[in-house]
User: Which sequence fits this backbone?
């Protein structure tokens, strides 16, 4: 038996808790961007509203996106995520293709095959992913050079706006709007562009449908094999009050059993209902999994009266994540929705010098 060569991030995880960044969408809102800002000249004539399509800010407002990355890095993030949560042809179609249901039709596999085959959407998805990864790479390298501390770019792969696990038709439980192969194809397009842009890692995150995640993981494996390229993979699920992934209803332990064959760099929980309600499920995952554990919760529950739209401030998140660290549960910590650079700075300060969850050495056959 020999010890495998370690990725630089693995070496960090063995010695301290790594920090991942916060919420891109929440932080974008603090810049006061408008519909005309996101459209720019390029999308000026689009017929649908685009303001909720935060991924295309990477194309129309790259200076703002780079500034957000810089702020998270200067707050102490070791890992920053690309602005690509919805950067697949399938998700982008929500903003650029008329919904057939508005004209008496329905979304089904034939509809989504046309989406997959549409050059505009495939090209747009590629450009968003590649450019976002390049923006992250440039800023991560700049801050790393200035501080003497290596930083990492995680290519963010979100859960999609469609489900492979559930039927939207109450009268037809077997109906699915999209096929596994279509989802896999859309993810493969995204993955190749994230790699081309310079991502260090791939992060399949906010998993609420385990079958969607399985399609992403199969796509990753196939891209690695076909392109003779390998990157570490991080996996993170969103859970409900019962500890189940939100649509597919897998429990925390079942979720780990479904993805452990991937041999990810880390597995964890993000988003969800806030850190207090996440604790028991994080504890269970930490007990069952034999890889690094990540945790980046929402800043509590949504609150439209709050400045960030969520209940918990930087000190609150720092206290909760500090408790997770004291309990020996985490190797990677940060924040999801509602977490600004100020939240990440508080978390990083609170966890500085705290021991990471113990990791067993990884061995493979010689």
Assistant:
């Amino acid at each position: 038996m020999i010890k495998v060569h370690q990725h630089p991030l693995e070496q960090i995880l063995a010695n301290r808790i790594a920090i991942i960044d916060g919420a891109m969408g929440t932080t974008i809102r603090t810049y006061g961007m408008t519909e005309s800002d996101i459209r720019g000249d390029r999308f000026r004539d689009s017929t649908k509203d685009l303001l909720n399509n935060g991924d295309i800010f990477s194309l129309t407002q790259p200076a703002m996106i780079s500034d957000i990355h810089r702020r998270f890095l200067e707050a102490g993030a070791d890992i920053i995520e690309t602005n690509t949560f919805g950067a697949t042809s399938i998700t982008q179609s929500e903003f650029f293709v008329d919904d057939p249901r508005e004209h008496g039709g329905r979304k089904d596999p034939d509809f989504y095959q046309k989406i997959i085959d549409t050059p505009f959407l495939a090209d747009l998805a590629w450009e968003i992913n590649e450019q976002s990864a390049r923006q992250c790479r440039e800023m991560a390298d700049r801050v790393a050079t200035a501080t003497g501390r290596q930083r990492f770019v995680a290519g963010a792969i979100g859960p999609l706006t469609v489900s492979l696990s559930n039927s939207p038709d109450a009268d037809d439980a077997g109906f699915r709007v999209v096929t596994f192969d279509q989802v896999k194809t859309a993810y493969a397009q995204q993955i190749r562009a994230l790699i081309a842009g310079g991502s260090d890692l791939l992060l399949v995150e906010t998993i609420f449908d385990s079958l969607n995640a399985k399609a992403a993981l199969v796509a990753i494996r196939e891209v690695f094999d076909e392109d003779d390229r390998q990157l570490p993979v991080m996996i993170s699920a969103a859970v409900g009050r019962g500890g189940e992934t939100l649509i597919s209803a897998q429990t925390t332990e079942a979720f780990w059993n479904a993805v452990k064959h991937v041999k990810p760099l880390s597995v964890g929980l993000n988003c969800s209902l806030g850190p207090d309600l996440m604790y028991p499920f994080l504890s269970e995952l930490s007990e069952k999994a034999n890889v690094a554990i990540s945790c980046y919760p929402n800043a509590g529950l949504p609150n439209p009266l709050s400045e960030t739209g969520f209940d918990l401030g930087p000190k609150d998140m720092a206290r909760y994540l500090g408790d997770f660290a004291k309990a020996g549960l985490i190797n990677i910590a940060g924040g999801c929705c509602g977490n600004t650079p100020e939240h990440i700075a508080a978390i990083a300060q609170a966890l500085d010098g705290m021991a990471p969850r113990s990791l067993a050495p990884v061995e493979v056959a010689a």
Q: What stands out?
A: The longest strand covers residues 201-207. The domain at 2-364 is CATH 3.20.20.330 (TIM Barrel).
